[in-house]
């Protein structure tokens, strides 16, 4: 009996470590519960929308949710759209089984942009990276062998003061993608910068955070080019 205890002790210690880790506490904070209404909408959509071999799943925060012309812009792919305002990797991890259902997607693309926004309660770049890895693990368990793209957080005029922290988190995620099969980092930083090395305000709405029609057109071209480079075609 004692021998069996010592065999399972390392597993128990690992489980205890992750259950008490700062990242786990972030994922299971009370804040995540405020998105329950959005998840109920996704539950309804998941009951009637189904993927096929030409379907992209694009999930994430408000930039995904308000992309009105997404089906046209990313044609000839079919697109399953799962975006909700204010999304962060903490709540995305918590609700991932209701956002990303096991289906035969051509690829899964995720854009979550609110973990670092220049606020006191922001996650650190390292916390963002740990949250990203936790999300990858969950998605790959449900959708093995499906290409998973992380769309880099675009530089925006309204959050430019937080750009160094955002870029640090992006660098950690990029390095991880480069080392792992079926993980891809979709670079958007350079294409949204102007000649003065600042975010191009002409690509954003009045709030200087969300893309306008020209911004979405550039985003879609960048996404389609990245998919083609990886051999992912309709």
Give the strand tally.
Answer: 5
Low-confidence stretches: 2-19
Fraction of residues in helix: 40-55%
Main pleated-sheet profile: 5 strands, parallel
Neighbour order of strands in the largest sheet: 2-1-3-4-5
SSE series: HHHEHHEHEHEHEH
- Which value, in Å, is the CA radius of gyration? 19 Å
Label the structural class: alpha/beta
Oligomer: single chain
Q: What top-tier CATH class fits best?
A: Alpha Beta
What is the name of the CATH topology?
A: Rossmann fold
Strand-residue proportion = 5-15%
From the 3D coordinates, which CATH architecture would you assign? 3-Layer(aba) Sandwich
Q: How many domains make up the coordinates? A: 1
Average of pLDDT: 91
Describe the structure.
The chain is an alpha/beta fold. It has one domain (35-229): SGNH hydrolase (Rossmann fold), CATH 3.40.50.1110. 45% of the residues lie in helices and 11% in strands. It is built from nine helices and five strands. The chain has helices at 2-19, 22-27, 36-46, 62-65, 70-73, 89-99, 125-142, 163-178, 213-229, and strands at 55-60, 78-83, 107-111, 148-151, 183-186. Strands 2-1-3-4-5 form a five-stranded parallel beta sheet, sandwiched between helices. Strand 3 (107-111), helix 7 (125-142) and strand 4 form a beta-alpha-beta unit. Helix 6 (89-99) runs parallel beside helix 7. The longest helix has 18 residues, at 2-19.
